[in-house]
Structure formats: C-alpha cells, structure tokens
Amino acid sequence: MTEKKDVIVVGAGISGLLTALSLSKEGKDVLVLEELPAIGGVCRSYMVDGYQVDTGAHIITRTGQGPLRDLMTRYFDVIPNFVPHGKYYVLLNNRMRPFPWNLQGWFNFDIISEVDRIYLMKTLFSVSYLYNAGETFSNKSIAELLGTGLSSQTMRFLDCISMFMSGASMKETPVARFLDSESYKSKSNNVLEKLYNVLMKEGALDQVYPKGGLQSIITAIESSFPREKVEIKTGEKVLKIDTGQKKVETTKGEYSYNTIVYSAFACELPNIVEGLSEEYKRTLKKLPKTSAMMIWLGLDEQVFQKDGSEIWVDSDPYTWVVPISNYDPGLAPKGKQLVGFMSKLQENADPEKEKKKALEAIYKIKPELEKKVNMIHYQILIPEKAAWTVNTQFTGIRTPMKDFYLAGTDTEKKSMGITRASYSVLKLLDTLKEDKVI
Questions:
Q1: Global pTM value
Q2: Which of 52, 59, 121, 167 pairs as cysteine with 387 (C-beta 3.0–4.6 A)?
Q3: Domains of the chain in sequence order
C-alpha cells in the first residue's frame, strides 16, 4: 500500500530541513527523503582524527535581523548559540589589511594605490545613486562596469571578492551582487538613506559562527520538530516523480503526496520528472553549480591569532581562511587549532591535481604551517546550487506542475549560503500561503 503524506520534501540539506520544520509547525505531516546516509548536506559536521570539521567554510550573515532569525523566531524551539565572526582581513601584495566596508575603510585601504581607490569610490558613488534610483545592474558585470582603468593588482582583488561573493569571476558577477542590500524587509524608498547604508556601514557586525559547529544548527532544527510530524528517510534516492498521480518512486518504496517541495538540485529535475516543457528544461539548465575545494588543517598550536577570517588574494587559487576553533576551542583537541581553507574548484579540473595545487598555495603563503600540521582533510563541495551570474535564470518557487514547489539556493539570488537558503524558505512559505496550502 502506498504511504501518503501531506507534504514530501526531497532533499535534507539546510533548505529541506528548514522547509520540513516550518511546514510541520504549520500543521502538516512531512516526509523528508534524502539520498545520502546523513542529513544536513553542506551544513553539517563530522569527526576527523579528533577534530570536528564542517562541510565547507561557513560564516552566517544577517543574523541580527534577517531571514534565518525570522525562521528561528517563528519555528525553532532550540536556538543555536552564535559567536561574533570578527573582521575580514585581505592579503594583497604581501600585506594584510581589514576589508574596506565603508568610505573610511576605502581611504585607509593602502594595499591598493590611491589612484585606484579614488576611481573605485567615484564608481561606487555613481552606481549606488543609479541603483537606488531604480537601476538594477543585474545584467552588467563588475568587469564591464570598471573597464580597464585599474591596475592588475586591484583587478585581481575585485576578481577574488567576486569569486567568493557569487561563485563566479568578475566577468560573470553582476554589479547587483555587490549592492545586495543588507537591510531586511526595508520599506524605505529614501535615496539618501539607501546611499548612506551602502557607503557608511561599519562592517560584518551581524556575521556569526555557530558554537558547536554547523552541526549545532542541524541539531537545533531536529530538536524543534513537532512530535510525530516529521519523518526523515536517509539513503533513499528519488528515482521518479509522477506529478499526475502525485507519487514519488524511490530506491526503497513508493509514496504519494498532496504537496511536494523539491529542495535538491533543480537542474536535475528533467531526469526524474517526465513531461517538462522544453522551455522549462532550458531554464533549469541555466543554473550553474559552484564547486569548491576545502582543505582542513589541524595544527599543533594556534597559528592564526585573530578572530575573523582572511581572504588571500595573493594565493593561486584565491583562498578564504577560517580558523573555526578560535570561535569554539572544543572543535579541536586541547592546545590544537582547526583551520579551513576554501578555494574555487575549476570546472572539469582533476581533483587530485587541484588538492596538491591548493595545499602548495597555502604553504607558499604561510611556509611555517607545513611543520605544524598533524591532520589534513580534503572536501570537494557544491556550496551554492546556482551561482549568481549575469546569465543565471533562477527558477523561482513555483513550477509548471500542480502542487509542486522548489526551495533552495537555486531559487533565490539574494545573499549566500544558509542566509540565501533561508530567504528561499520564507519565499516558499509566502507562496504556499498565497496558494492556500497552509
């Protein structure tokens, strides 16, 4: 006999779990189907030689007033304990400086030339004014905006920042990504106020790391599930979704649903759903995944002293360095330090060669690390299901199929990571309310 649920959620990554929690708290019986043996996707932790490593480097943004905070307030019974991230530091031209968040920061950012800083500030003023006057800049890239008026070092810096903000180079990253508003549900249309927010913000003040690692967020979600309202089945791959009969066929069984929310890779829908239009298939194919190389190093002592993370523009590949045991010493054995190094994995690259290249790049920047390493762990990840590029067509929440919805970082372009997933889930909830599903 086919088991029936109010809602089936496909995928138990952060988007799927937040969806399951919110819909179960709205009174729905939810079944979550996950292909892998563990839940959490790229938002979980596990042990390696006494160190608790996360799946990738994560700093969570907009926690003071933002989408994750909104979901936690509405649906979490257990709230994770967050630790302030601290500053971002940029290594460029063999010099380290705090990231320039505002006007004062740019004036003092002396690792690029004064001529380049003035050029960038003039560009930012003009773009910010036009953006707040209604120009979206979603189809103009950073490279197209800046032209050839900057030095190669400054262009490398901007290319590096583009890579970590969008998952793409500055030739593909839209200007709108840099103007992605930090305000949440702001009702203000005042141009001067918006310009002030862009130019005068103090930095990453609302960015945090979860004490206990990423696993603490998954644990908080699981602990908040209403009793007997959520069932999670792991190791169960979805083979086919019959939208006419409202049935899901997996490697272990068959289930029927009233509503389905697909939070896995939307680009893979044509493989499991028949009858999709060619136009919708083309939209799904225009969702470029972002792949990353993660290297976790366990160190014999605390080499990275500062709270905060470092962006190494000088390394090849560009590297984001996050010393997570600075936020929670319990993630490493006593007296040791756990540091994550994330870089973009080039398309069609040989993973083994990329591992070697990335590790050599780390040792080239900090040669002293090599003698202090007692643990090395590699991860190849997809931190965003769709990069925000000038050509990306995000799917949105609704699909052409009845009672079939999407959730995840390939439906929403705002922000990144867990914050982006949270924006998507909130938009899903609004959509389901409009459709009178909840």
A1: 0.93
A2: 167
A3: 3-43+213-287+388-434 (3.50.50.60), 100-200 (no CATH)
